[in-house]
Amino acid sequence: MKCPFCSAEDTKVIDSRPADDNSSIRRRRQCEECGKRFTTYEKLETIPLMVIKKDDTREAYDRNKLEASMVVPCHKRPVSIEEISKAIDEIENEIFSLGEREVTTRIIGEKVMQKLKELDEVAYVRFASVYREFKDAESFVAEIGKLLRNGKKK
Questions:
Q1: Helix (H) or strand (E) holding 17
Q2: pLDDT in tens, 77-110
Q3: Does the pLDDT of residue 140 top 80, yes or no?
Q4: How far is CA 137 from CA 36, 125, 134, 141, 144, in A?
Q5: I need a labelling partner for 71 at 20 to 30 A (CA). Which of 40, 90, 127, 128 fits?
């Protein structure tokens, strides 16, 4: 592993342990040249997941797109980046545990809606309005009505 400080190629592992999500290994390393320490994460490489879009085209799964789809509706809401990142990790675990090589945007979108509903109802409605392609205010009000009815059942 190359040192990020001095670019020396000789580093040693000081400590290894499972990362918080238990799906990767966190390694503390020390450079043999400059003595500085840094952390690396080792994650299992999997077969690339393909996403089937609404128009039946396929593209490689991109975590950045999932992140953007959650960050935008949470803008100016009391949702931390850590909460969003944790939700994305959970969505990814659910998607990858399906064991499929292809997944539809519908499946991903429903999982995003579920997580946003848990995080922040306003962010959920924002996402739903785009995802479900609300055509008018009536559709918007109907979705909020469902949210309110389900909230009363809790």
A1: strand 11-18
A2: 999 999 999 999 999 989 988 888 999 999 999 9
A3: no
A4: 58, 12, 8, 6, 11
A5: 40
Provide the CA 51 distance to its chain's centre, in angstroms: 15
Indicate if the pLDDT at residue 64 is higher than 80.
yes
**Rg of the chain, C-alpha, whole Å:** 20
d(CA 32, CA 60): 38
75, containing H or E segment: none
The per-residue DSSP string of 19-54 comes to -TTSSEEEEEEEETTT--EEEEEEE---PPPEEE-T
* More confident site: 153 or 59: 59
Length of the chain in terms of residues written: 154
Higher pLDDT, 37 or 45: 37
What's the angle, vertex CA 39, arms to CA 64 and CA 46, rounded to 5?
45
Average pLDDT value for residue range 57-83 = 94
**Residue among 105, 111, 113 at smallest CA distance from 146:** 113
More confident call, 151 vs 67 = 67
Long-range Cβ contacts of 84-88 (<8 Å, 24+ apart): 84/119, 87/115, 87/116, 87/118, 87/119, 88/63
